[in-house]
Structure formats: C-alpha cells, structure tokens
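From the pipeline queue, job 12 of 40. The input is one protein chain; the requested action is below.

Action: predict structure.
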Amino acid sequence: MAPSRFRSRSGRRRGRLRASLAAGVLAAVGLFASPVAESAAAPAPGTPTGAAIPEHALVGYLHTSFANGSGYTRLADVPDSWDIIDLAFGEPTSPTSGDIRFSLCPRSECPNVETKDEFKAAVKAKQAQGKKVLISIGGQNGQVQLSTTAARDKFVSSVSAIIDEYGLDGLDIDFEGHSLSLNAGDTDFRNPRTPVIVNLISAVKTLKAKYGQDFVLTMAPETFFVQLGYQRYGSGQWGGDPRAGAYLPVIHALRNELTLLHVQDYNSGPVMGLDNQYHQMGGADFHIAMTDMLLTGFPVGGNTGNVFPALPPEKVAIGMPASPLAGNGHVPPGEVNKALNCLTKGTDCGSYRPHGTWPALRGLMTWSINWDGFNNREFSRNFDQYW
C-alpha cells in the first residue's frame, strides 16, 4: 500500500459486545461538553500568525513528500477552498528514534515538484491568505514510537526544526499502525502510564508551550484508536489488541492544546455507536454515529466510572475520503450533506439519532487535496456550497 498512501487499514477485528449501557447514562455524559480554553502562552518570536481558523473549516492533506496515482500538486496551486493544509508526511528515521525528517518529493518521482525556495514562498503566500500550513507526522508508513525520553526530546527538536525551516503554523499528529498501544494494566485514560503515550503527550505540550497560542495542533486518528474505546480499551482482561482506544489518553491530555480533532471515518471496520449497534462505512449514518460519540462523550471500555468527556464542537471535524479512489468509505455529496444536516440542524437523520445538535461543528477533513483535484474537486466544491 506504500505507493498509494491511503494512510490506514481496513477490516480490523472488533471485540465482543460488552454489557449494554443505559440511555440515561449516555445522556448524562453529554453534560460534560463545554468549551475548553486554548493555551495562553505568548507566541515565540518569529512564530507564524495570521487569521483565525474559519468558523467552518476545510482541512486537506497534500501529498508533499511522494507521488501517487492522483498526481503531484504544488502548494501554490492548492485551491483557496482549503483552510488547513497538512503536508504529508514527516517520517522518522526509525520507529523509535523520534528523529522526524521531511523533504519534498524527489524530481524523479514528481517531475513538476517546486524548489525548496518556491515551496517556502508558497507557504508564506498561503499564510498571507489566512490559511494554515502544518507538518503532518506519521501516516501509514511513518511509525513513531516515543518509547524513551531521548526519543521524546529528539521528536521535539526535529519537529521544531521542520516548523522553523519552512515557517509552518503547527503540527498534525497522524500516528497509525503500531505507533500507539497501551501496556498491560494501563486502564485509566485519564492517567496513562505507557511510555509511548506519556512521552507523546509531553512532547506535544512542549511544542505548544514553545510556539504559543497561535500554534495549530490537529490529530487524525483512526476509529480503531478512538471510538472503538467505547467497547474495549487496550488489551483488557481478554487479551485483545492493545491499540484499541489508545489515542484517547492523548486526546484527553491535550484537549486544552488541541485545535481540531478529525478522526478518519474511512478504511474502518464496523464500529459500535452509542446505540450499541454496529455501524458500517458507506453512508451518512456512520459519520453521524462516530461524530456523535465525540460530541456526547462515552464510557471507556464500558466502564461508566471512566467517561471520556465530550469535546466542544469547535474542536471537531469529520474525516472523509475525497473520492472513491482515495480510500474505503467514500460517500457522495448527498450523504455528506445528510451527515452535516443531522449533526448541525437535527434534520436528515437516518437510523441513528444523535444526542444533540451542534451548529458549531468545525467542518470536514479529507484525504486528500490531490485526490479531490483528481475527482474534479467534487468534495471541496460541495463544502463551499454547503457553507
């Protein structure tokens, strides 16, 4: 799958249904939702600033360090529809080094690639238009395991070097595969003990403190690492996959620093929603159910005493593929709009009924800007028309 870089996997095994949870408990969970203040730290000298992220934002990944069937798109040629541009990808020199490297696509692979100076000029031009340009770390091929404090510190210094060299606005965490997993016995997402989790949280907090309140932090976990945590968390008492729900402690610990969470609602197996029914990709219901979990909150691993609190809608976007070729789970514009209508207006809801309506839902994320262009910009044009 490396040449196509679809970024995630499909069909992961899911655990058995645990005890049903009362609807009253889930309704109570929704009361935890409240806006969370951003860090008040002052921006460091030279930190890129610019206009705030729009009320409803469109986020897209730009194939920057590689090419695939969608073709290479220069940063300067990215359409104005895109509010946050994630440069894909910064990758480590080895899974445990913490040493992140980023370079433009080789000319042998991308004949129309810009020079480094042209690329830097394009970053500044996009920022002058109020856009945010981030370095995305990880992806399907970039496994990052910060298992030691040395790796943590190298992660901070190497990511800082990339941000400083290109004058970027922040960081997108796109850890997949085996980057994050929970050690046996690490059962409380509020107080994680697993080194790869603890060190990642520490590293990101350090970066946020260094660059200040204008530093943009986004995350793009897969459903396996987030919503699956409703059913089971880590390996559990039955010895399941230790990666189940492993992003939850990271999201929770960084919710103050977080700008935007956009879970990948694609390349996913069936996932249980708060209605205790399995939901599958391919229609609006999957996006509604998965997003409702983030905006309502949920008991982790079925434990009503261990509740993952709801995120403010301003910090949540929905991740979707831009075209049928971009990844499994693509839905046409009509289904995209149904999901948005249901979550923001309470209309066009299907079999899944969310626990509220959230007009302030931030927007959409897609893999990718390149695949959207390949598909005659269907995804971004629909977003522009909707908002």
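Job complete. Residues 149-166 form the longest helix (18 residues).
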